[in-house]
Amino acid sequence: MKTLKILILPGDHVGPEIMAEALKVLDVVEASRPDIKFQRDTDTVGGCSIDKHGKPITEAVLEKAVASDAVLFGSIGGPEWAGADPTPESGLLQLRHRLDAFANLRPCEILIPSLVDASPIKPELVAGTKFIVVRENCGGAYFGEKHEETDKGSDLWIYERREVDRLARVSAAVARILHASAPKGEVGSKPVVWSADKANVLASGRLWRRATTDIFEREIPDVELRHQLADSMAMLMVKEPKRFNHSAVHTDNTFGDVLSDISGGIIGTLGLLPSASLAGVPGEGSCKGIYEPVHGSAPDISGKGLANPVAEILSLAMMLRYSFTLEKEAAAVEQAVVKVLDTKENGGLEIRTGDLGGKAKCSEVGDAVCEVLRGLLKA
Ligand code: NAD
Ligand code: IPM
Ligand code: K
Ligand code: MN
Question: In this model, does residue 23 exceed pLDDT 90?
Fold first, then answer.
């Protein structure tokens, strides 16, 4: 029997609601694999940890995270902790830093043709969109030295070459995976990485561009590198999302935060977007990671069963894939989600939450995914 240790951190507001659904899905996976035990430990982070312990994450939780094979995370924050010092959000940043989970993979994908209706972009422009933002997760303005006074605030936006280098290896690996699975007619002969920076303004941006260019020349000749300024990248993503299809968007912490929420805008909801924050290179064996939706704690809809659990469930699938190398199970979870969301005329169940124009409750989506998944894993 193989035991895999998972630290479960549901967090605040919709965090516990969507986590409950993901854990049902985990139960189904476990029931299908008598040789595997998911050993779960649940704890607090964010606002609920401030309430309980006076800080957004305790040393004990950080140590548990280090001792786990993976962390499944919900979302944190909310208006009741406005002005808290430290903030609930800083608990998540400490966690990313402690695990050195430097590579944040945030896929942007129209999962099925019938979901183009959720996007505000014209169907012919958005149908078939698929790229992955690879966001640097442990450096930049988020972690540089801070100064805060009543009338002044500063964040040191600093990168070192080694931080850009290690992310570039991940971006290249992601680009190779996307290229290999893309329809032949939709890609050129080489995988593509788009690097987004502000080399025209920021010294850290010029370092980013130099380091990225150098390591691709030196180590990654099989992948094509394209540079784009981050502001125009944001515009192009909305205007012409498929320009980036089947490629990895290699970018820094702050730009990656914004570009991945733009991904939510392209799709039409944040409720579908998962993420993996990895401490290693995907495809090179299992690595530790933090798995969480791109979205936040959605206080505007919490407590009503309205949240879409799909982003959390797809984050769980990423955990199965990258931390546990359970590719078959990961793919089955994704397939079950597609079946639940898809229209009846396409053979789906069309069970969707309000953000996708449906009427289903959070738990109804979770239950439906479990039911379909049971069938898929039995087959
Ligand atoms: P948000 O991502 O929580 O919500 C933005 C919008 O998307 C809201 O209208 C919300 O209702 C909707 N939405 C989000 N998740 C959804 C889901 N699963 N289903 C349906 N609709 C969904 O962003 P915000 O409102 O700017 O931030 C709220 C709090 O969350 C803040 O405290 C912020 O700091 C925090 N936050 C936390 C994380 C995290 O835990 N990783 C990420 C982003 C924001
Ligand atoms: C995200 C969030 C976090 C970030 C916050 C809550 C610290 O917005 O995961 O995208 O800025 O990274
Ligand atoms: K989250
Ligand atoms: Mn964000």
Answer: yes
Examine residue 196 and state whether it is found in any structural domain, yes or no.
yes
Q: Sorting pLDDT into bands at 50, 70 and 90, what band is 302?
A: very high
Which run of H or of E encompasses 278?
strand 274-278
131 in the same domain as 101: no
Q: Which of 64, 231, 242, 367 is catalytic?
A: 231
- At residue 190, the pLDDT reads 98
| Ligand 4 centre distance from Cα of residue 350 (Å) | 28
- Is residue 89 within 6 Å of ligand 2 at its C-beta? yes
How large is the average pLDDT for residues 28-51?
98
* Single-letter amino acid code for the residue at 102: F
Q: Is 0.95 exceeded by the ipTM?
A: yes
Distance 292 CA to ligand 3 centre (A): 5
* Residue that terminates a domain, selected from 267, 300, 322: 267
Atom of ligand 2 nearest to the CA of 257: 10
Distance of alpha carbon 304 from alpha carbon 306, whole angstroms: 5
CATH number at residue 320: 3.40.718.10
51 labelled catalytic: no
What is the span of the domain harbouring residue 207? 120-267
Average pLDDT over residues 73-83: 98
Residues 235 and 290 in one domain: no
**What is the chain's mean pLDDT, rounded?**
98
Cβ contacts of 57 within 8 Å, gap of 6 or more: 45, 46, 49, 91, 92, 94, 95
CA pair distance 163, 169, nearest whole angstrom: 10
Please tell me which residue, 379 or 195, carries the higher pLDDT value. Answer: 195
Say yes or no: 179 and 311 in one domain.
Answer: no
Active site residue 231: yes
Residue 336 CB-half CA count within 13 A: 31
Buried b (16+ CB within 10 A) or exposed e, 111-136: beebbbebbebeeebbebbbbbbbbb
Last residue of a domain, one of 267, 294, 315: 267
